[in-house]
Amino acid sequence: MNELNTRAVGTAIRRIRKERELSQEVVSGLAGIARSHLSMIENGSKNANFETLWKIANAFGMDPHELVRLIEKENEKSAN
User: Fold this and answer.
1) What does the alpha-carbon distance between residue 63 and residue 79 come to, in Å, rounded to a whole number?
2) DSSP characters for 24-80?
3) pLDDT higher than threshold 70 for residue 72
4) Which of 17, 44, 47, 80 has a 20 to 30 Å separation from 37 between CA atoms?
5) At the fourth CATH level, which superfamily is domain 6-71?
């Protein structure tokens, strides 16, 4: 098992957001977090706790485990 790369978390979240053509303002508003917080998570300078990941998953209309799985895939790619 690889260590979690915070950049992988941000990359996965950014990818989903862009695929859905959503702005940081929209996602952060739906998640109930500050846009600057989302930006820091996306660029890997801030870790997201599970509650924040849960809120972001809900903002995307997905279950938290789906978001975690996408983060795991991104983390695996970054480890290779």
Assistant:
1) 25
2) HHHHHHHHTS-HHHHHHHHTTSSPPPHHHHHHHHHHHTS-HHHHHHHHHHHHHHHH-
3) yes
4) 80
5) lambda repressor-like DNA-binding domains (1.10.260.40)
